[in-house]
Amino acid sequence: MTTKIKIGGAAVLLLLTIITITAYHRTPSSHEKMLGLLKNIRDKNYVITNPFNPEVKMAHLDSLLRIPGNLYNPRLLTSAASLSLKVGKEDQAVKLYEQLVNKIDFMSMDAMMPNIGIAYMRLGERSNCMLNHNGASCIFPIKDGGIHSIKTGSTKAILRYAEASST
Fold this sequence. Notes:
Helix content: 55-70%
Distance between the termini: 104 Å
Structural class: mainly alpha
Number of domains: 1
Order of helices and strands: HHHHHHH
CATH topology: Serine Threonine Protein Phosphatase 5, Tetratricopeptide repeat
Number of strands: 0
Shape: elongated
CATH architecture: Alpha Horseshoe
Radius of gyration: 29 Å
Strand content: under 5%
């Protein structure tokens, strides 16, 4: 009887060992493989030289703005406003552009005015077409529910473009 118990115990131990080894050495699922591939691609392309990744440029610029003396640098603030727009932070872009308009000389604003107009247009689109979306939001001709109910972005965009075209 003791020989049978020893053989049975050894068989159970062998089975547990096989299960443990297979659990640790299993092949990843296709989902896990895809996640790994996507992570590798993201890591490889998360570089400042990638023209299609404004997030990394924004992170770099934020670090430059933290350097003492750079917080009010017009060149850096202009880049920050432009990148904010590219990463979908229209509110931040508009605030930065307005800050710049109030701080820089009139002659330097000409090149920036179209960008300010774009920032306000995108702010208007975000606040109306996305936040107040309805069936008429994206259908031409725009009428009824598709007309902007929050007019700040579109109105200021018109003003900025008018200023840009009159100079």
